[in-house]
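The following record pairs a protein chain with its ligand, calcium ion.
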Amino acid sequence: MNKKIPVVLALGAALLLASLQPITASAATSKRLVWRQEFNGKALVKPDQAIWGYDLGSLNANSEEQYYTNSKYNAAMDGKGNLLITAKRIEEGSALWMKCMSCKFSSARLKTQDKLGFKYGRMEARIKMPAGVGTWPAFWMLGANLENVGWPESGELDIVEARGIDPSIVFGTAHGPGYNGAQGTQYGSTTYATAPLSDGYHIYAIEWGKNYVNWYFDNQVYLRMTPASVAPDEYVFNKEFFLILNLAMGGAFTGDIDPNLQRSRMYVDYIRYYKINGVGTVIKHK
Ligand SMILES: [Ca+2]
């Protein structure tokens, strides 16, 4: 999600490869649930502040057109078992509009930075993606050393990104030094759902261990990464990462926002984290 540029050119080749060489899940592994967010609170209750913080404002990244808030009207439980992230069109003349006249929507970007980190294991979420041209939802991770080394040296693992203009495509991507969206050289692939991702819930996951990350859509692996995938550049994923959930609007990756779109909603039923064969650590910072 950082400094992303379109991956359309790579898409055709990736899809062709995926159709010719379907990849199957690896042999039996043991998984043990060790951390979860089920989002079962009452409507308009914000997510647990011991776990979730916020990025706020316009961030000035990727030509995006949202303004991130920590309002319960942009991110809160829906009372039906989901964390609801809502992007809402900003009214001209409103207080938010006065803060950022180029921002078209309010939205939310939640993160576990400085609160909770993860190293290895299986990270998964069950999500119903937002509908509408111009939406850019994501469930992703950044290296916990981001503040020290910056991006892309921190590493970025996009467990899933989607975009309203191509509503059935699942994007899985990794960024690092020498392979990243700022250069158009990120390492990633895509897979197709049979219907728009906003039509229903799907499970988006990575399984991650020393020197590998595998990406899953509804438990089918569609992308694998090892150090050889990014060589001779440095593989930066054998370390702690933190989680991010956000709904961006507009920007280079998804394109112009439908001028008639007033509101869009991303439903996160749960996030679950597992040890794989005993490997996977939750790191608490506060
Ligand atoms: Ca739930």
